[in-house]
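Translate sequence into structure tokens.
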Amino acid sequence: MGAIEQQTGTDKANLDVFSSTLQQLAKTDKQIVVVTSDSRGSGKLTPFANKFPAQLVEVGIAEQNLIGVAAGLASTGKKVFAVSPACFLTARALEQIKNDVAYSDNPVKVIGISAGVSYGALGSTHHSLHDYAVLRAVNNITVVAPADNFETERAITLAAGSPHPFYIRFGKKVMPLLDANNTSFEFGKGRIIREGGDVILIATGEAVYPALQAAEKLLSDDDVHATVISMHTIKPLDYELLAKVAASGSPIITIEEHSVYGGLGEACASFLLESGYHNKFKIVGIPDEYTVTGSQVEILNHYGISGEGIAATVMELLGVSH
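Result follows.
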């Protein structure tokens, strides 16, 4: 498995990299402030709090207050990271994110942790399968889901220096570096992890790794060559890259740890159809149903968001059965 195996033993959860990057930035920038709603531990922020106690504000389990405080601090020039579980942050505090952050252009970096189905058996109330959809509909907020440690470090570093609002989404899993040779990262520009001419896999966040696993399985089992794209920025979407890969005529599959409604897949589909492309197309995500109960891995496997599941979807779309 090439580059993936070479990274074994050095990988971390993206949240750990988020925390370590913030600590590095805070060493030389006292304007960086973290606001959290009883998420110091789950957000991997205890080391930050220990080193920079004057730069962390704890509001308790009060997500709407969290965003209000963060927006107020940002309006005074602070570089604010508001950290809370994605399922609560983008539902309970949606009005505050919309009005106090996005519409008021306060440069808060809203950090949704334990996103997707990271909470596993805690069930649907703790799953964040709606955040892309609701925030894509809000003007003036960039929506980002880093796929690996490299993308996480770059996203946090660049967002810290931006004068505009962001929503950045993290799960819990340890993530391998996906392509050590591709060190390009720019908001709004997808990152090509692997190139192939038979099918195009466009994924975001932690779903990029199973897409890469699927590409390797397809190559070894069926000699199918897949392009894999990390579409780390959901909004704004990289329309230029989408048009470029769609022009090949190859089938396109999108993969996301999110509802099939309103996320990466529908964003890609609407652009492609409006632009006149007619590639075979499939969205892999969580269907509109009561989500099955289990661990994160069990849930993702059930819905085909795994190397094996994505490979099977590819073969079905290509019209090949085993």
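Note: The first strand starts at residue 12 and ends at 13.
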